[in-house]
Amino acid sequence: MSAFYDRMQATAERLIARFGYATQLERDGAPTGPPHNPQLGPATQHDCTVVELDYSLTDRDTTLVQQGDKLGLISTAVDIQPGKDDRLLLGGQLYHLIDLQPLSPGGQVLLYEFHARR
């Protein structure tokens, strides 16, 4: 069954690359300094590919979705596993990930779906 999911992951990566665009995922740097006063290290950028999607009208207003929020897909062709504490550069502006869900049938991640806000 793994060969099937390998093909599905390759298809997802190919389609996101074709219809999406290259951008960067930003992650806080490792803490530095003494244990009693740690300082955040410089943020690290990781190249990734995303596809932005539109929210349906039923998902807007009077829900958790606010005007200006972004919804989309992140390809698994990235050198780190995205996390909710990461930020995503979309349209030249940095967005914080509000929700991040992997699509992982059979335990293999095919892509990540995100909800982001400035």
Brief digest:
The protein has 118 residues and is of the alpha+beta class. It has one helix spanning 2-19, and strands at residues 21-27, 31-32, 39-40, 44-53, 70-75, 87-90, 93-103, 111-117.
Question: Which features characterize this protein?
Answer:
single chain; 118 residues; alpha+beta; 6-stranded antiparallel barrel; two-stranded antiparallel sheet; 8 strands; 42% strand; globular
Could you characterize the architecture of this molecule?
The chain is an alpha+beta fold and 118 residues long. It is built from one helix and eight strands. The strands form two sheets. The chain has a six-stranded antiparallel beta barrel. Strands 2-3 form a two-stranded antiparallel sheet. Strand 2 and strand 3 form a beta hairpin. The longest helix has 18 residues, at 2-19. The chain is globular and about 50 Å long. The protein starts with a helix and ends with a strand.
